[in-house]
Amino acid sequence: MRRPRQVTFIHPRHRRPYFWMILPGVALMLVWWLTTSNASLYEPDNQEKIPPVASPEAQVTVVSSSRLAAHLTPVPTIDVPDWLEITIKAGDTLDGLFQEYQLNRDHLQSILSSAHRSHFQSLPAGHYLTVHTDQEGHINELMLELNFDEELYVSREMTGFSSQIRARPVKTRLIRTEAIVTHSLYETAKKHRIPTNFITEMLDIFRWDVDFARSVQAGDVLRVVYEQRENDSQQQQAGPLLAVEFINRGQSYRAVRYIDPTGHISYYTPEGQGLRKAFLRNPVEYARLSSTFGQRRHPILNRFRQHNGVDYAAPTGTPVMATGEGTVKTLERQRGYGRVIVLSHVGGYQTLYAHLSKFASSLRVGDSVQQGQVIGYVGRSGLATGSHLHYEFHVDGVHHDPLTVKLPHTLPLPESQQAHFFQQIQPYLAQLDPTSNRLASHQSPVRYNKPLSAQIYQN
User: Fold this and answer.
1) Residue 157 to residue 172: CA distance in whole angstroms
2) Pick from 36, 111, 184, 309: CA 20 to 30 A from residue 258's CA?
């Protein structure tokens, strides 16, 4: 039998001290590595490396304050404007505005003592107050907007403040606008930015030729030339109506504005003929035409007969005007006409007004009447089925249709003013007819508004 292998056990105290023999060498190597390397036992991997401190022998560069200031961000300061424009609100006072905008109150009493101080007592809301100050905060100038054309100007002088009302700078130019009537004239004007007061003027200018209450229709054409004004605040204002053309049912009516040497303003045809006619076209404003001139069946007699005038349906009591200057020839009540007035006019003309409810007070036979004067009131006296005015127009005893008869003009422009007239209206006519080559060389630039291009439709 094989004998087991003999194992010899050595007691620990009998081992050789190898650890203590190599420890001094390891320590020396660690010290050498730390002294010859930039590594740090506690330095994180992502920490920014700090450069070594310069040695005492390193060169030091001195930077001047001006160069240093160029690299520094300046501290922001509040810039106080030399010109301050204030929009006045309702209830603002000059004293309150001085406090709100920290203006020099030492000048306030002197400004309020100036010649036009009354304008500061109630400041107009929406207007501008402009103030100019110097570097020390002293007020040099103050301007208060009074209206489109004027401003109150206050300036500082040696003895205090002086004030004056002066004109504002205003530019002018001619504007031409063309529009096609679709609905009413006023709606058409608004749609094309034509000042609506021009429509009112046109109604008055052509009142002797056009029956605006009944004859205006879709497709009529309106052309206006007017002056547009713009002040130093870029506010715009329509100036006077210089020329107008209204094409009604294919018939053209033109008028131009003329200022004669005495300053009197009136409208004339381009040929210098006065637009004011000897007769108005209608004796009743804005009344409905209920019966025309010519053959018709009489509403009461029920048989055909000549109707020698026109009828205007209107409420009882509606004023009736004399269509021209004349003399009262007849003022009475008749069986058929009821209360009737007949006026006699120069040149063989007569006008008749029937079925009145009453005559104008104090009107008598032989009295002179003026064009547009109220002579009576609409009614239903005589043979009438309803309240209306029967109106006739006679020329040398012959009945004519009041709606189509050619009305005589008043006196034309004096011959002595005709050269001045044609020179003044030339630019206006050139704009009214843009294809004309008569445009004056000194005329202001003109903006053309686009005419309506949409399809015309009837109300």
Assistant:
1) 34
2) 184
